[in-house]
Write a structure and sequence with these properties.
single chain; 233 residues; mainly beta; 3 helices; 12 strands; 14% helix
Length: 233
């Protein structure tokens, strides 16, 4: 009887234990490389989601000084970075598999704490439509009077933006809005991922600024949106 009780206790623990594997890193940004000055695109790898709107991923930024690699947990309900595990590298010769294995215990603890399933995010959709819904990014670009940088490459602008999702029947709801400060150039819609556990998407935008040598330094921005009909009222 005691052996049976012990088995019943252990089975759920075994069934929920996971081996988190390092994701394949890809470039989500649909932009051409600047062959004259250079472009720094972040590499992104989807790890998996939770059943309560969390997305976990690996992201790596590189510039002439080195690379910044981290594991992040992002809430598609509050648009907040919930937790991150950072690995700073002073050079560009990173063995990502080795770094993952060395830090696996910390990575496993982080992802297990937030009940992440090691399933990836599924397909990345570059369309601005999902079912009957349309994704709209409105932008109003205004020239800055006082650039924030200590160096300039011509006129600088600030970007007033609104991200909307909806259709003519339900109307359009605001997912987010804001102002990009002077020095940040452009804001582009890249696509979205679908949460496999609920009717929610993770929208991906990108922007870039000019580095010290006028190279293009790109960044990714994430925003969650529920597609439930009730969320449009």
């Amino acid at each position: 009887m005691k052996k049976l009780l012990l088995l019943l206790v252990c089975v759920p623990l075994i069934s929920f234990s996971q081996i988190f594997t390092q994701p394949n890193l890809i470039n989500l940004i649909d932009a051409e490389y600047n062959s004259s000055m250079g472009s720094n695109f972040p590499d992104f790898g989807a790890i998996g989601c939770s059943k309560d709107g969390l997305f976990a991923y690996q992201i790596m930024y590189c510039d002439p000084e080195g690379c910044f690699n981290s594991i992040e947990v992002f809430s598609a309900k509050t648009d907040e970075l919930i937790a991150s595990l950072d690995f700073n590298n002073s050079n560009h010769n990173i063995d990502l598999e080795e770094e993952w294995n060395i830090n696996y215990k910390k990575i496993n603890e982080l992802l297990s704490r937030y009940n992440i399933y090691n399933t990836g995010f599924g397909e990345f959709y570059r369309s601005n439509r999902i079912g009957n819904f349309e994704i709209i990014l409105n932008r109003n670009i205004i020239e800055c009077t006082e650039p924030d940088y200590g160096w300039t490459y011509g006129a600088e602008y600030e970007n007033h933006y609104r991200l909307l999702v909806g259709n003519d029947n339900l109307g359009y709801k605001k997912v987010t809005s804001g102002i990009q400060d002077c020095g940040i150039i452009g804001l582009s819609f890249e696509g979205y991922f679908i949460n496999p556990f609920e009717d929610r998407i993770l929208i991906v935008l990108s922007s870039y600024s000019l580095g010290f040598e006028a190279e293009e330094d790109y960044n990714l921005h994430f925003f969650g949106c529920s597609l439930k009909t009730s969320s449009f009222k």
